Amino acid sequence: MRYLTAGESHGKGLTAILEGFPAGVHIDCGMIDSELARRQGGYGRGGRMKIESDSAEILSGMFGSVTLGSPIAFFIRNRDYEKWSAYTDPVRGDIDSKALTALRPGHADYAGCVKYGFDNARKILERASARETAARVGVGAICKQLLSVLGITIGSHVTEICGVKSTVKPVGAAGLNELSDASAVRCLDKTAEKAMTAKIDECMKNGDTAGGEVEMIIEGVPAGVGSHAHYDRKLDAVLAAALMSIQAVKSVSFGMGGDVATVFGSLVHDCMYKSGAHGIERKTNNAGGIEGGISNGENIVARIAVKPIPTLTRGLDTVDIASGKAVSAAPERSDYCAVPAAGVVAENVLAFALADELLKTTGGDDIDTVVRRVAELRERANVWKQR
Fold first, then answer.
1. What is the number of alpha carbons within 13 Å of residue 8 lying toward its C-beta?
2. What's the structural domain count of the chain?
3. 326: helix, strand or coil
4. Which residues contact 131 (CB under 8 A, 6 or more apart)?
5. Which of 139, 233, 239, 318 is least enclosed by beta carbons within 10 angstroms?
6. Which residues of 109-147 are buried (b: 16+ CB within 10 A; e: fewer)?
7. Nearest-angstrom CA–CA distance, 335 and 330
8. Nearest in space to 337 (alpha carbons), one of 160, 102, 103
C-alpha cells in the first residue's frame, strides 16, 4: 500500500489517497471520525481545537461502505479556512500579505526557507504544521479496521510528561485506549496524571510548552511479518521510520530501548520455553515483539519521545529575515502540550505501516485471501506440529 496527503494548515482542507487497500472490507466511517476526535483531545491543547471538528468525507474507493480495491480518497475540511481564505486560497490568496519573517526556533521555518528560497516562512509552516496529521489519522483509522478483522489491536498511553513518569505498565492493547482516553492526559497512573496536569498548568502560566513520552502496544501480530533479508524490509526499521515522520517526534525505541546498553545479555534476551504440545512461550518481552527485523508473535511495544512544541507564547530569541534584527518569535496559535494527541497519531501511523508490511507478507487483493493467509501464518508458529 501507499498513501499521499495534501493540504495546508489554513487551506481549504486536507486530502488523502490510500492505494492498495484490499477489497471487501466494511469500513465504519463513524470510526474514522472518532479517531479524528481522539486526535483533537488532551489537556493542554490550544485554540485551534475549539474551532475544528474534524470529519472525513469519503470521495472514492467504496460502495456501500465496502472497499473496492481501488484508491480510497477522503477530504477533511478546515473550518478555519473562512478566516484565512484571503491569504491561503490556492489561486487567489495573497500569502505575502500575511508574511512571517521572525523565524521560530525548533520549527521548519529557517531550514525550509533556505531549501525553497522563500523569504516568508508562512509558505513553509502551512504544510509543516502538525495539522497534516489529521489526514494521516484518517488513513490509519481505515487501516485499523483492516487489522481488526485480522485480530490485531493497537493502543497507546502516555508514560511521561515533562519529567513526570507513570508507573503503570499495561500488558496488552485490548481495552487500553478506553482506559487511557478516560484521562485528560491519557495516563493510566492517577497520581502521575495529577502531576502531569500541574506541569501543563505551569506551562500555561509561564508561556512555555511540555514534551513527553508515549508507549504504543500492538497485540495480535503473527510471527513472520517483516524480513531479516534486507535493511528496508526489517519491521522495526519500517515502523521506526513511520513514527519518526510524525511532527515533533525526536526518538523511537522498541522493547527495552536504550536500557539494553546498561545490562548483560542474560538480562536482555527473551528465553523461550516449550508450551503444550505445539508452541513456544516467553516470560519476558524485552525485544518488544521484533527479532531480526521480523515479528516474533509477542506484543510489539514501541515508544516515542515528543519534544515540547517550539511555538511558545512568550516567544524565543530569533532573527527577523526581513530586517536582520534580533527579535522574539511571534506566538502563533499553538498548544501547550500535544503529547496525549501524539499517541493517537502514532497509533494510526503504526496501523498503516503494519498493515502495509502484513500485506507484503501475505499478499492478496481481497480480505478473504488475506484472512486465510494470516491464519496460515499463525499456524506456522506451532513449530512442533510440523516435525
1. 17
2. 1
3. strand
4. 7, 8, 9, 14, 48, 78
5. 233
6. bbebbeeeebebbbbbbbbbbbbbbbbbbbbbbbbbbbb
7. 14
8. 160
- Beta bridge pairs of residue 251: 305
Burial class (CB in 10 A: 0-12, 13-18, 19+), 276: exposed
Predicted local confidence at residue 262, as pLDDT: 97
C-alpha cell at 335: 498548544
Give residue-wise pLDDT tens across range 201-216: 999 999 999 999 999 9
pTM to 2 decimals? Answer: 0.95
Look up residue 140 and give its amino acid: G
User: Helix, strand, or coil here: 218?
Assistant: strand
Residue 279: the pLDDT is 81
The partner residues of 74 in beta bridges, in order of sequence, read 16, 58
CA atoms of 342 and 327, how far apart (whole Å): 30
CB 224 within 8 A of CB 377: yes
Q: Which residues contact 173 (CB under 8 A, 6 or more apart)?
A: 153, 154, 155, 217, 218, 219, 220, 299
Residues 6+ apart with CB under 8 A from 244: 252
- Domain assignment of residue 253, given as a range: 2-386
Q: Residue 166 is part of a domain; what is its CATH number?
A: 3.60.150.10
Length of the chain: 387
